């Protein structure tokens, strides 16, 4: 079963990288294109920081955090009980998102972001960020509602 989780993670990372490559190749940097009117636009920006561009330009910090996060996530995935599918799914989403953004950081020295929420002020984000967000939500749900011994 662990191999299936890692295959899913690989597919998620590939989807993230394909979308980012498409955006970089087809959308002018900084331009905004309506995708769903009043809801979502697509843009092409670089982010050298974290969420909301926090710690912009501190690439060494992000390289170190990424390496540590991947090591911790792999350890948690391998230590998780085989029947803790919900928990392991959250960890795999976190791993895929972390690796997706890490590829950008290591190859472009910035993360390509493209989704712009139109109906409220929110950070521009990418598919890897969605994986990370849902991974965190799944893990919080697991910690709140499932037995502590499941993970």
Describe the protein in words:
This protein has one domain. It starts with a helix and ends in a 6-residue tail after the last helix. With 151 residues, it is of the alpha+beta class. A 3-stranded antiparallel beta sheet has the order 1-2-3. Helix content is 59%, strand content 13%. It contains 4 helices and 3 strands.
Summary tags:
4 helices, alpha+beta, three-stranded antiparallel sheet, 151 residues
The proportion of residues forming helix, as a percent range, comes to: 55-70%
What is the rounded Rg? Answer: 16 Å
Q: What is the arithmetic mean of pLDDT? A: 90
Q: What share of the residues does DSSP label as strand, in percent?
A: 5-15%
Distance between the termini: 15 Å
Total helices: the number is 4
- SSE string, helices as H and strands as E: HEEHHEH
What is the general shape? globular
Largest sheet entry: 3 strands, antiparallel
Query: How many runs of DSSP E, i.e. beta strands?
Result: 3
User: Pairing-aware structural class of the strands and helices?
Assistant: alpha+beta
Looking across the biggest beta sheet, what order are the strands in? 1-2-3
